[in-house]
Write a structure and sequence with these properties.
Layout (H helix, E strand, L loop, with lengths): L2 H12 L2 E2 H8 L8 H7 L3 E6 L2 E6 L1 H10 L5
Antiparallel strand pairs: 1-3, 2-3
Length: 74
C-alpha cells in the first residue's frame, strides 16, 4: 500500500471528517495520483450518508491496513 494511501487513512481515522472536507483535501485531477479513488475502490474508506450530511470513515479493512503499518489511530 502506498504511503499516500496510508496517510489518507490515518488522516480520516484521526477525527470525524465530512465528505466535503475530505474530498477538498484529497481530490486529485491527475489520474496517476488517485489516492482517494484507490482507497474507495479498495474498500479502505467509505462515504456514509445521514440525510443531507455525508462523512467519510475508515472501514475495517482500512483500519487493518493502518494497524499492519503501525499507523493505527487506536
Amino acid at each position: 500500500m502506498s504511503p499516500a494511501t496510508l496517510e489518507l487513512l490515518s488522516w480520516i481515522a484521526e477525527e470525524p471528517r465530512t465528505y466535503p472536507d475530505a474530498i477538498d483535501v484529497w481530490r486529485t485531477n491527475c489520474p496517476q495520483h488517485s489516492v482517494w479513488e484507490d482507497a474507495i475502490d479498495g474498500q479502505l474508506i467509505e462515504v456514509v450518508r445521514d440525510g443531507s450530511r455525508a462523512s467519510v470513515v475508515v472501514t475495517e479493512r482500512g483500519r487493518a491496513a493502518l494497524e499492519v503499518s503501525g499507523l493505527d489511530a487506536a
